[in-house]
Specification:
Number of strands: 42
Largest sheet: 9 strands, antiparallel
Helix content: 10-25%
Distance between the termini: 94 Å
Radius of gyration: 32 Å
């Protein structure tokens, strides 16, 4: 009898505790919206059973339709797990391999990329394939403006991409493009239309009210319409005019999602290999933090499997805690609230109290206290070429990346700081580097970039027009009235360009990395923004060498002047006032053609680099002239042989100079009609007096 009473008391305790949790979930849901707001869908699965299911708000504001079990909402990127699940299913059926190169199925992609781009790289965002949404934004035609945009349009844009953002498998970069490509791979491997195949797949999962978008004009039964108020308090329906699918755009019901969560929780009991493997890291993968359309990592200090999604006014969140047998799913068509935060609030009601394990890397203890605060300021670069700036403003030390608002750092010791919004994230400063410490033991090391003074010549070298063949987009950079600006088609006006350092410019959230050739000319820009890394823009104009040196009271210029009869040219060196008026000039050259490319300042004068047919051994020879500060010639010399050698630029080194130019070589000296010639980059080392020390032929110029 006592045992029976004890058991009943225990069951009552469990029931009461559960009811209290459910009441608290009701309270959380009710605090987020009213019955007349766009809807919120919340469900909880515990120990394989649905213990909570709630529908709050309106699926349609126009017709005052309440959200219910039949309502379907768009879960956006949370849908990626289902596209990945179809891929995994095809591998288990041996219709494809995760190690397959994607070009086995999509042969038009990246013909110039030699490395294998594997299917598993698409699944966990390590492929280097750029996000087509952000590519379209660079084109100033974002996806949401393009009526009828579908997966074929997105893939057509990707087929124009000539390279990847990085080597496949070398890093993680979230990219929707991977999942758009996977829909086509599924079609090829299965031999069926993706929509037909996916509908049968969902029915086999018991998800009868779940379908990927096919036509935005088609009627979706019981659709919850998307609403935003854009901060003015007036609800407006968010326009959705595209036909994309696979990376998101999955319309589903809460009941279907909870049915799936039950299946996942019961997978081991039912020996469901597909669902069991879908929750694990991808075999052979370089990373373990993202798997089959799911993030794999701690959440709320517990091991979890999760993913979020957001498209327009639609958003969703799924969180699974495998060890606690707990799943929380939230979705909404209401932009004022956020599914992720709500899901976390609810999950905390069921999770036991657990403090985060603090296990900083031991290098945190090695932070030095003998570096002055002024010395920690500057720019730092991560191993992945990610630039951040440590700045001081209003006596506050801040961390800034890109054009984002600066994050204040809180000083704990002389060279130890913490992030203002999370005191557990520490930043230690060391000589020529900083280390970002996480309480989990992970860290990130940034190397300090030596300060580079950006000269007027640098600013002028950025000027020109830049073009991307892949995007058919052009922009121009101008320097006027001591201001650097950029103009892009689609912008109302030119925008100021911030110069971060000699090799990096910034406008809005566009980071522009300068590319130079062997002669130090600016030849292109790599544009990075959001989920697009290093998109190449080739410089079309103003491919000049360095013809000018700024001085304290003006400039020194070198140029080529032609004769009146056109039979010769000479090199002109001038010193000018700041307004451009000439102070003095000197001419150099012989009776034939002499051309100047650039000038280099030395301690005692100037070095002029060019080419000559007046002197030397061949048609044109590399030509170098050394002058004093007044422009008087100290010495001149030529370098080269029978064919054409041109000098373009110079670099000061310890024992003299390296003269950079090109050298030509031909198969015959006499048969000009049948001979073949090649031109290679050519570096000539000379001493302070112009004597050749050595020379080196580099790669061929195509």
């Amino acid at each position: 009898m006592k045992k029976t009473i004890a058991l009943l008391a225990f069951l009552v305790s469990i029931s009461t505790y559960t009811q209290e949790q459910l009441r608290k979930i009701d309270s959380i849901v009710n605090s987020k919206l009213s019955d007349n707001d766009p809807s919120l869908f919340v469900g909880v699965v515990k120990d394989g059973k649905i213990i909570y299911e709630n529908y709050k708000g309106l699926a349609s504001l126009q017709h005052k339709v309440k959200a219910d079990a039949n309502s379907r909402s768009n879960i956006a990127s949370t849908a990626k797990q289902f596209t990945a699940l179809m891929v995994l299913d095809l591998t288990l059926k041996e219709k494809l391999s995760l190690e397959d190169d994607i070009r086995k199925y999509l042969p038009k992609l990246y013909p110039n990329v030699r490395e294998k781009i594997k299917i598993r790289h698409l699944l966990n965002h390590t492929s280097g394939v750029r996000d087509f949404y952000d590519l379209m934004s660079i084109q100033q035609e974002p996806w949401w403006r393009r009526e009828g945009l579908d997966n074929n349009d997105a893939i057509e844009l990707l087929e124009k991409q000539e390279d990847l953002a990085f080597k496949p498998g070398s890093r993680y970069m979230y990219s929707n493009s991977g999942y758009t490509l996977l829909t086509k791979i599924i079609e090829v491997a299965s031999g069926e239309d993706f929509h037909d195949y996916s509908e049968k797949f969902f029915k086999n999962l018991g998800m009868d009210n779940t379908t990927f978008l096919k036509n935005y004009m088609a009627v979706i039964p019981n659709q919850a319409l998307p609403y935003s108020d854009w901060g003015d308090g007036v609800w407006q329906q968010y326009p959705m005019i595209t036909n994309l699918y696979g990376d998101g755009f999955l319309f589903t019901s809460l009941k279907d999602q909870l049915t799936f969560e039950q299946a996942v929780q019961n997978a081991k009991f039912n020996n469901n290999r597909l669902l069991i493997e879908s929750q694990q890291p991808i075999p052979n993968s370089e990373i373990t933090t993202y798997g089959f359309g799911l993030e794999l990592g701690d959440r709320l200090n517990f091991r979890s499997v999760h993913h979020s999604g957001g498209t327009g006014s639609y958003h969703s969140q799924t969180i699974r805690f495998p060890e606690e047998k707990l799943s929380v799913f939230v979705m909404s068509n209401n932009s004022r609230i956020w599914s992720g935060g709500i899901a976390d609030e609810i999950a905390k009601l069921f999770l036991p109290k657990k403090e985060a394990v603090i296990a900083y890397d031991q290098r945190l203890k090695e932070v030095s206290n003998d570096i002055a605060t002024s010395e920690i300021l500057g720019q730092y670069l991560s191993p992945g070429n990610y630039l951040i700036r440590i700045e001081e403003k209003d006596k506050k030390i801040t961390w800034r990346n890109g054009n984002n608002n600066p994050i204040e750092l809180k000083k704990e010791e002389q060279n130890l700081y913490s992030i203002s919004y999370d005191s557990k994230i520490k930043i230690g400063f060391y000589k020529n580097k900083l280390i970002l410490f996480y309480p989990s033991g992970k860290l990130r090391i940034y190397s300090k970039i030596p300060k580079q003074d950006v000269t007027l010549a640098d600013l002028e070298s950025y000027v020109g027009q830049y073009y991307s063949r892949e995007l058919d987009v052009e922009f121009s950079i101008n320097y006027k009235s001591e201001k650097l600006s950029i103009s892009l088609h689609g912008w109302d006006e030119a925008q100021h360009l911030e110069v971060l350092n000699r090799n990096e410019l910034l406008v809005f959230d566009y980071i522009l990395k300068i590319e130079r050739d062997q002669f130090n000319r600016v030849t292109g820009i790599l544009l990075t923004t959001n989920r697009v890394l290093n998109n190449k823009f080739i410089k079309k104009t103003n491919l000049k060498f360095q013809p000018k040196i700024e001085t304290d009271n003006g400039s020194i210029n070198v140029t080529t002047i032609g004769s009146r009869d056109g039979n010769s040219s000479q090199i002109l060196l001038t010193k000018n006032y700041p307004n451009g008026n000439e102070i003095w000039s000197q001419q150099f050259g012989g009776k034939s053609y002499d051309k100047a490319s650039s000038i280099l300042a030395t301690d005692d004068g100037y070095l002029i680099i060019g080419s000559t047919s007046s002197y030397g051994k061949g048609n044109y020879d590399m030509f170098v002239i050394k002058t004093d500060k007044k422009g008087n010639k100290i010495w001149q010399n030529t370098y080269g042989d029978f064919y054409n050698e041109y000098g373009y630029s110079a670099e000061k080194v310890e024992n003299g100079y390296i003269i950079k130019g090109t050298i030509q070589n031909c198969s015959s000296n006499t048969d000009v009609f049948n001979r073949t010639c090649t031109t290679n980059v050519w570096f000539v080392s000379i001493d302070e007096n112009g004597k050749e020390l050595s020379n080196k032929i580099l790669e061929e110029i195509k």
